[in-house]
Design a protein that fits this description.
Layout (H helix, E strand, L loop, with lengths): L2 H8 L10 E13 L13 E10 L8 E2 L2 E3 L6 H13 L5 E8 L10 E9 L13 E22 L5 E14 L2 E14 L2 E12 L5 H18 L14 H12 L5 H8 L3 E8 L7 E6 L1 H4 L4
Parallel strand pairs: 1-6
Antiparallel strand pairs: 1-2, 1-4, 2-3, 2-7, 5-6, 7-8, 8-9, 9-10, 11-12
Length: about 300
């Protein structure tokens, strides 16, 4: 730095400006057996998409459920803070981790001006050891269901601005044994001058603290869209060895629809490598096991 810059910084008072606290909130997903008993051993286990939630042990929102997360420490990037929180909550940092969106609306946290960087993490259930910490006293995996329950579209202006508004209401339901929590969230999409903006507002929240209902729905929609366009991230929910049936089931659980087996296997064929392992037992036919084809998986186009 030159002398002018050094003198400027020596007299600069950052305390003159209001500064927010920065937090990370983690939507950590896995796929595993439903908590409901499956009485027919001949059927494949009833798998569900699950989201890790923590029960808050102190105000605000004491005894309500929230996403795991915490404040950034001095010197940390938000990504480093997310990795730390992931390992603290699950005892592993080996997961797909992606920054998703910043939530900075006024009043989103009653403690003050707190901006949250939301992350999506995908993790294999067999690699985690969930534990609660910090201001949480309980951590649980919740079965997740998300449905669009209404959609309306309005053409606002056709005189040159090409403005269209689309409003949808999503219903989120989450289950763990006899615990049921959820939220209804309004999604507003505005198309103006060929550009899109998206906003989410909480309509109802039942048992979920802060604005975490809309963070969950935002990230769930993002996850579905990514699986539609690039399903490679689904492999991060799988163990090292897996069957094609289990892989297809994971896609179907996230997309919430059935897939044609022949089409699915053709599309993912280059990303899997057959092994000499066979899985047997449980009353169903033996099945071949596969691993990722690393060469195809990480190749540059």
């Amino acid at each position: 730095m030159n002398k002018e810059e050094q003198e400027y910084l020596a007299n600069y008072d950052i305390a003159k400006y209001d500064r927010p606290s920065i937090a990370v909130d983690m939507a950590i997903f896995t796929i595993s057996d439903s908590h409901l008993d499956n009485a027919d051993y001949r059927k494949l286990p009833d798998k569900r998409l699950k989201l890790l939630m923590i029960k808050r042990g102190q105000p605000p929102y004491k005894d309500m459920w929230a996403l795991p997360g915490g404040f950034c420490k001095k010197g940390e990037t938000v990504y480093e803070a997310a990795l730390r929180e992931l390992k603290e909550e699950t005892a592993t940092d080996k997961a797909y981790l992606e920054m998703c969106n910043v939530f900075s609306e006024s009043g989103r946290d009653p403690r003050g001006w707190i901006i949250s960087q939301a992350f999506m993490a995908l993790i294999n259930s067999k690699t985690v050891n969930v534990k609660a910490g910090g201001d949480a006293w309980e951590a649980r995996w919740f079965d997740v269901e998300l449905k669009r329950i209404s959609k309306e579209q309005y053409v606002i202006d056709q005189s040159g601005n090409n403005t269209i508004e689309s409003d949808s209401v999503f219903e989120l339901k989450m289950y763990h044994n006899d615990i049921i929590i959820g939220a209804k969230i309004k999604e507003k999409r505005l198309y103006r001058d060929y550009h899109e903006s998206v906003e989410y507002d909480v309509v109802e929240s039942d048992g979920i603290g802060f604005d975490h209902g809309k963070i969950i729905i935002y990230i769930l929609n993002k996850l579905r869209n990514k699986v539609e366009t690039d399903g490679k991230i689904v492999f991060d929910l799988m163990p090292e060895y897996f069957t094609l049936t289990d892989l297809q089931k994971a896609f179907e659980i996230i997309l919430d629809r059935k897939l044609l087996t022949a089409n699915f296997r053709r599309k993912i064929s280059e990303y899997v490598t057959e092994t000499d392992r066979i899985i047997t037992g449980g009353g169903h036919r033996p099945a071949k096991m596969f691993i990722r084809n690393i060469d195809a998986f990480y190749k540059n186009d």
